[in-house]
Write a structure and sequence with these properties.
Elements (H helix, E strand, L loop, with lengths): L1 H26 L1 H7 L17 E4 L5 E15 L7 H8 L7 H8 L7 E7 L1 H10 L4 E10 L7 H4 L2 E4 L2 E4 L2 H5 L1 H4 L10 H13 L6 E5 L3 H18 L3 E7 L6 E7 L19 H4 L9 H11 L7 E4 L2 E4 L2 E4 L7 E4 H6 L3 H11 L1 H10 L26 H8 L8 H12 L3 E2 L5 E6 L4 E3 L6 E2 L3 H18 L13 E10 L6 E14 L6 E8 L7 H19 L7
Parallel strand pairs: 1-7
Antiparallel strand pairs: 1-2, 2-3, 2-4, 5-6, 7-15, 8-9, 8-20, 10-13, 11-12, 14-17, 15-16, 18-19, 19-20
Helix pairs in contact: 10-19, 12-14, 12-15, 12-18, 14-16
């Protein structure tokens, strides 16, 4: 028995040692390799470290989105420099040095340390090292590097200083800072303590240190951003943005804004407003893209059907205020299909009034309007939907066609996705996996779905939105013969926060669509704030939407559905 017991102990010990060897050489080999080079690191600090962020290609290949770059810092020690003039002459042959700046630092008598150059490549550092200048030192350095430059900058965010600590300041860098952050102290943590503590964290709500994998597809992200840049330039818009999401799961394939910024050079950006992710942090009155939500609610509650009609007089007066269609004209007796085809405000208001304020409010709240979506990005806004509580018919009517309530774009996309995915609210998300330093990988996708509409309601509103594209959107010019697309445009007045009411000449354009319409793979949302020289969103956003749709259909090889 004793021999067997000892044999079992030896086998277990062997497995533990193999596990430790795997951990040291494979999982964390690069970190220990860096520690072995401490002669290049400043003695008063550790070499900076941080977890990585990855994009994922359509075939599952992962590419770096945020990583670490290694280089060298050149420092001088003024109190040890014997020949400052000679040091300057030698150094300036290898690196660009301002004479005044160099001597301002070199003349600080008694100063033990002054940096004169950073982020030098190894070949330059080798040349400087060979000079063996007294009072000059080289130190290995690492910093955050974003290989894509501007690509997905509002998603990734950037790393900056919070006091003396480098930490995530925006985007995923901030939201997942507790996963990406490294303090270096756990490199020597007890092996058993590390294993068991990380297993506990991996299965619980807390996060352990690791890398994160996103659902962002870089080719899709690049195509979206290129389209947004063209939109901004063509119409001189204050800001344009877009979202591409899987309406079935909430996975985000792309999300972008223009103008953007380069996270590698964020400190040089003079307009801090560019750092704001307006798709998550800002709210807008979205206009007529809200009409399908209103009509779907009417279908779902049974107060109207696709064949229901009403008499359109061109305007409605409620609580002493008048609302009208975009052109002020009446159409006589029209169907619900024509409400969408011609984007009639009076038609959406009629459906809302038939629902009644309590039921209308309940449906809009069920769509998740006025609440956070749960997207894994910081500073998400909840939206402004107080008008739903007013109890007056006029606020009910304006909300039905997207005025008087303000929503974030991501909140809007989440609600609109329910029209095509069978009637469910999903959770928009970017990160799909966390790869912990112990080698454990955990999926973090939220697969929960909340039913908000009946499946047949989703099918009926989708059919109507397909007809909008096929026959009414720019007179059917962009109909795709082999693929069904459900879509709607929106043109909204922009509220005047100072004088009340709305600016007469400032507009927000929006557009959403999903395809294939009856089992959608993608929902695409676009918006433009104050585009110049054009009134209606159909003329600004239809063409770029269709270009994106065609790209996705071809890139993902989506078969025809009709």
């Amino acid at each position: 028995m004793r021999i067997r017991f000892l044999s079992v102990c030896c086998v277990l010990l062997g497995f533990v040692l193999l596990g430790k060897l795997y951990l040291v050489q494979i999982v964390r080999g690069s970190e220990y390799s860096v520690k072995a080079e401490r002669q290049y690191v400043r003695p008063d600090q550790d070499l900076w470290d941080r977890g990585s962020i990855f994009f994922e290609m359509r075939d599952g290949t992962r590419v770096s989105a945020a990583a670490l770059k290694t280089g060298f810092t050149v420092a001088i020690h003024p109190k040890n420099m014997a020949n400052k003039e000679g040091a300057y002459a030698e150094l300036s042959k290898e690196i660009p040095l301002g004479r005044e700046e160099f001597f301002a630092k070199a003349d600080k008598v008694g100063d033990p340390y002054e940096e004169i150059a950073r982020k030098l490549p190894e070949e330059i550092a080798t040349k400087i090292s060979a000079l063996t200048i007294k009072g000059v030192s080289l130190y290995k350095d690492r910093w955050r590097f974003y290989p894509g430059g501007l690509l997905a900058s509002h998603i990734l965010g950037f790393v900056g200083f919070d006091g003396n600590l480098q930490t995530g300041r925006a985007g995923l860098e901030r939201y997942y800072n507790d996963v990406l952050y490294r303090d270096g102290s756990d490199l020597y943590q007890n092996f058993f303590a590390e294993i068991f503590s990380n297993v506990k964290k991996a299965v619980g709500p807390a996060r352990a240190a690791g890398d994160i994998v996103t659902s962002i597809e870089p080719s899709v992200q690049h195509f979206l951003e290129h389209s947004l840049n063209e939109l901004e330039e063509t119409y001189d818009a204050d800001r344009v943005g877009g979202i591409i999401m899987d309406p079935q799961s909430g996975r985000l394939y792309a999300m972008g804004l223009s103008p953007s910024f380069d996270p590698n050079e964020y400190a040089k950006e003079t307009d801090s407003g560019r750092f704001i992710n307006s798709l998550v942090e800002n709210v807008y009155e979205m206009g007529s893209i809200m009409k399908p939500l209103t009509i779907a609610a009417g279908f779902d509650a049974g107060v109207v059907s696709a064949t229901s009609t009403y008499t359109d007089l061109g305007s409605l007066t409620l609580n002493g205020k008048t609302i009208s269609n975009f052109d002020g004209k009446g159409r006589g007796v029209v169907s619900m299909q024509e409400v969408l085809n011609q984007s009639l405000n009076t038609g959406a208001a009629t459906v809302a009034l038939r629902l009644g304020k309590d039921e209308f409010r309940a449906y809009f709240k069920r769509y998740g309007l006025g609440e956070e979506t749960g997207i894994d990005l910081p500073s998400e806004a909840r939206g402004l939907v107080q008008n739903l509580e007013s109890g007056r018919d006029i606020e009910l009517a304006t909300a039905s066609y997207g005025q008087g309530i303000a929503l974030t774009p991501i909140q809007t996309v989440r609600a609109l996705a329910s029209l095509g995915n069978g009637g469910f609210l999903v959770t928009p998300h970017i990160v799909t996996e966390i790869k912990y330093r112990t080698g454990i990988t955990r999926s973090v996708e939220d697969s929960r779905k909340i039913a908000v509409l009946k499946p047949n309601t989703s099918a009926e509103i989708s059919r109507m939105l397909v007809r909008v594209v096929d026959t009414a959107l720019l007179e059917g010019k962009y109909k795709m013969e082999r693929h069904s697309i459900a879509a709607k445009t929106g043109t909204a007045l922009i509220a005047n926060p100072e004088g009340g009411g709305y600016y007469p000449d400032r507009l927000l354009h929006s557009f959403f669509g999903y395809f294939p319409a009856y089992n959608p793979r993608f929902i695409v949302f676009l918006f433009a704030v104050q585009p110049k020289g054009v009134t209606f969103a159909s003329h600004t956003l239809t063409a770029p939407f269709m270009d994106i749709a065609k790209f996705l259909i071809n890139y993902y090889e989506i078969p025809p559905d009709r």
